[in-house]
Amino acid sequence: MGRVTVSNIDKAAAVLRAGGLVALPTETVYGLGANAEDPTAVSRIFQVKGRPPTHPLIVHIAGAEHLDGWVKEVPAAARLLAEHFWPGPLTLVLRRGARVPLEATGGLQTVAVRVPDHPIALALLKVFGGGITAPSANRFGSVSPTAADDVRAELGDAVDFVLDGGPCEVGVESTIVDVTGDTPAILRPGGVTCENLEAVLGHPLTVPAASHVRVPGQHPSHYAPRARVVLVEPEEVIAEAERASGAGQQVGVFLPAGSPDASVKAHAVVAVPASVAAYARGLYGFLRELDQKGCDLIVASLPAEEGLGLAIANRLRRAAGPRSTV
Ligand code: TXA
Ligand code: MG
Question: Ligand 1: does its nearest atom lie under 6 Å from the Cβ of 91?
Fold first, then answer.
């Protein structure tokens, strides 16, 4: 950090007020922000990302005390979760309030809201004074940026101003919880673990069904590097990587923590950190690194699906999903 000054935050707020797009750091990933109440600016986000207009955005606000107007009502479960996890990597889906244009919700009568836990994002929200709609600052379907340089590489001049807040601490996106129904439901695993949510709510939550390794067709690709991603069991990673290398592919390997200390015969190797928090923090950077090294195949395995491992496994499955042509 240190590269962001008060005048940079003022400038970013001015860009937002003028209908421009600002890339901003959050604790999860960098966002591509626009004034949530400016439908033209919001539409530009979709153009720049190449994102289908029906794919709703998250509105970022400065604190739970600012929910009025952005949402119609705050059910008890939402209030409880906001109290415990905001600011933080938790997004709540609530009924849409009058301040939210339909452009931001893809036409839905619900809206996703979160309070990011990053000093620069919070400072910008306070100076700007309104809500900022921000998806991850990457082209639709590709790897989310976890550093300002990733944003510049991904979006270049398409973004009017980049606030550099250093590398993101959490590294995977927020957990999305729908609190519009009778019981809260997790829509996307992320930076707040299912176990932590359940501890606060006092009951188990449903998590979107997970498919098994190598089952194609259920997870259209998203969070995906240019290289193809194949998932195998941890003990098969080395053999699979060497088989594909032998067949002439430029193979990148996610070597599972605790693998035998073998020197893998492959183009590039990432040693997966033993700590799941470090793995989450590094995940998107590892995928970008293997792309930059010219890999055409990445061989990886899934971590245990508990704690942050659930979000990592979700992103790896999506990265390995069938590539769509839309
Ligand atoms: O950590 C994050 O959540 C990051 C940072 C920048 O805040 N943002 C992010 O945004 O991941 P994006 O646009 O990449 O993902 C937003 C997700 C999408 O999967 C979208 O479908 C879901 O939020 N979403 C948004 N509004 C929704 C709604 N009303 N109902 C259900 N899902 C919604
Ligand atoms: Mg995204």
Answer: yes
The residues, any chain, with a CB within 8 Å of residue 155's CB and separated by 6 or more, are 23, 32, 48, 137, 138, 139
**252-270 confidence digits (pLDDT tens):** 999 999 888 778 999 999 9
Residue whose CA lies nearest to ligand 1 atom number 3: 174
Indicate yes or no: pTM above 0.85.
Answer: yes
Walk across the sheet containing 228-231 and list its strands: 228-231, 297-300, 251-255, 268-271
Number of the ligand 1 atom closest to the C-alpha atom of 108: 29
Long-range Cβ contact pairs of 51-56 (< 8 A, separation 24 or more): 51/135, 51/140, 52/140, 52/326, 53/103, 53/106, 54/106, 54/107, 55/106, 55/140, 56/104, 56/105, 56/106, 56/108, 56/110, 56/111, 56/112
Pocket test for ligand 1, best of 27, 136, 138, 314 (most atoms within 8 A of CB): 136
The finding on whether 321 has its CB within 6 A of some atom of ligand 1 is no
- Average pLDDT of 316-320? 95
Q: Which ligand is nearest to the CA of 26?
A: 1
CATH 3.90.870.10 applies to domain 6-201: yes
Q: Which of the four CATH numbers 3.40.50.11030, 3.40.50.720, 3.90.1170.50, 3.30.420.10 does domain 228-319 have?
A: 3.40.50.11030
Ligand 1 neighbour 108 (Cβ under 6 A): yes
pLDDT digits (tens, 9 = 90+) for 14-69: 999 999 999 999 999 999 999 999 999 999 999 999 999 999 999 999 999 999 99
